[in-house]
From TrEMBL:
It comes from Caballeronia ptereochthonis. It catalyses: 3-oxoadipate + NAD(+) = maleylacetate + NADH + H(+); 3-oxoadipate + NADP(+) = maleylacetate + NADPH + H(+). Transmembrane segments: none annotated. GO terms for biological process: 3-chlorocatechol catabolic process. Its EC number is 1.3.1.32. The lineage of its organism: Bacteria, Pseudomonadati, Pseudomonadota, Betaproteobacteria, Burkholderiales. This is maleylacetate reductase. One of its GO terms (molecular function) is maleylacetate reductase activity.
Amino acid sequence: MYEFTYTTPAARVVFGAGSMKLIQQEVETLGARRALVLCTPEQKAQAEVVSSLLGPSSAGVFDGAQMHVPIENARRAREHAKSVDADCAVAIGGGSTIGLGKAIALESSLPIIAIPTTYAGSEMTPIYGITENGLKKTGRDTKVIPKTVLYDPELTLGLPVRLSIVSGLNAIAHAAEGLYAKDGNPIMSLMAEEGIRSLANGLRGVKKNGKDKAARSECLYGAWLCGMVLGNVGMALHHKLCHTLGGTFNLPHAETHAIVLPHALAYNSTVAGEAMDRIARALNVESAPDGLYQLNQELGVARGLREIGLGEADLDHACEVALSNPYWNPRQIEKDPLRALLQRAWEGARPAV
Ligand code: NAD
């Protein structure tokens, strides 16, 4: 029997190859006059193109976006927006640039238009992160959600294939856990299943040819859906483990997600049958954990945590940290099976279904 609450803050989404060219029209639709374009130093050329497409509606480019949004950069960006009389900001880039846009929106009334160029999905979530004195604080506020999102797959053609693959697998992890979320709902489950299907297919195409426009479009479509899931329902064991491993041992974020997911799903498989069926259906395989493990191999992702810098001696500590802070998960978190999960993920063994 169904029982759920479905609320979603509306954002305008414009999807399609070449949609970046609609930027000036979209600024007008928002009722704004002057847009400041945000980017990282690496994506300045793309930001300059957006600025020229804006013509007289451009308030210039601010290329100070950085990973983890240092508070000083957010302050500088806010001041800069004020000094050039911007009444809107366009964030073109991945989660770091969109994160800078969110930090601006948090403490000003500036509306944000996002043009995502990775599969991270931040543009669809009310989650923000700001780093102050070396500590990253995260929070949720619907005010930071971009008002308009332009998804233009052509902008992802230059995203390196290896980075595209791990970014896409990271997005799949959001959708997979969204399927057994405590606050899940049927709409998010539809989006999650379709997001996994699209990303798995699209990533196979990107692995063969990073310039394949159809595959890039399928990946970005999947990234939108997975981002929606991340923004609307809670995450569980898998995300907790990845935050623990990333935060405590400084492991690369997206690779850690890709390696751990099959094992976290195996842990929950006995109590989340419907979610497993949907993931397996999306991947066209018999078993969700095994299907994801095989997808990782096919896409050439590192097999085990040992290959990305975790020492075997760290596994006990990782297990303790993950146990120390209770959180919701469909199956109770118990020490021995959790330690066994970590061991398999470290070795790169098949998930224990
Ligand atoms: P990123 O934004 O840090 O980008 C990494 C590098 O790739 C940057 O130099 C960027 O300029 C470059 N790049 C991005 N797109 C490119 C393209 N198409 N072609 C060439 N280069 C390109 O990477 P990310 O993985 O998108 O974002 C990671 C950050 O986002 C993390 O800090 C993470 O915590 C955050 N994040 C937040 C949320 C949320 O909901 N708040 C969700 C996902 C990720």
